[in-house]
Amino acid sequence: MPRFNRMNGQNIPYTAEEEAARDTEEANAIAIKPGLLRNLKYEGADEEFIKRGLIIGGWSVRGGSPKDRFTAASMKEVSKGGSKKQALENHHDNLDSLKDLIEAADDLTALEAIDVTDNVHWT
Questions:
Q1: What is the pLDDT of residues 7-34, one digit of tens each?
Q2: Alpha helices by DSSP H, 58-104
Q3: Other Cβ atoms closer than 10 A to 121
Q4: Measuring CA to CA, which residue among 53, 36, 54, 65 is closest to residue 95?
Q5: Which of 11-27 are b and which e, b meaning 16 or more Cβ less than 10 Å from the residue's Cβ?
Q6: I need a labelling partner for 1 at 20 to 30 A (CA). Which of 8, 44, 85, 102 fits?
Q7: Do the beta carbons of residue 57 and residue 81 sit within 8 Å?
Q8: Measured at the alpha carbon of residue 47, what is the angle toward residues 90 and 117, in degrees to the nearest 5?
């Protein structure tokens, strides 16, 4: 399909050089996108893990980043050997399973289909 530049209200066809440059640009964008999307999914999974972990623990710790609060609270719970310990261990296993799913996604469509906030990954 031909592409055009719009100048002074008129469509002017791309030159052969402009077409080639645009094709290269699009090919590069498509090649990079799965890697970027995979990294975003990993980050989203980590954020969801932290949010849900704080809820599991029932903590309302103040100060520091959510990750720091979760780490401190979970270490405290593990050291006490409380009933939340197993829930936290299961929660961490869920994160590992989700990251394995993200890693196994072999194309852009499969990656886009993974919703890291979906409860199916966390139960």
A1: 888 888 888 898 888 888 887 776 677 7
A2: 66-80, 84-104
A3: 20
A4: 53
A5: eeeeeeeeeeeeeeeee
A6: 8
A7: no
A8: 75
- For residue 97, give the nearest of 70, 71, 78, 123 by alpha carbon: 123
Token pair in block for residue 85: 């310990």
Annotated domain spans of the chain: 37-121
Q: Which residue type does 53 have?
A: G
The whole-model pTM stands at: 0.56
Q: Which residues pair with 10 in a beta bridge?
A: 7
Alpha carbons 36 and 77: distance in angstroms, whole number: 35
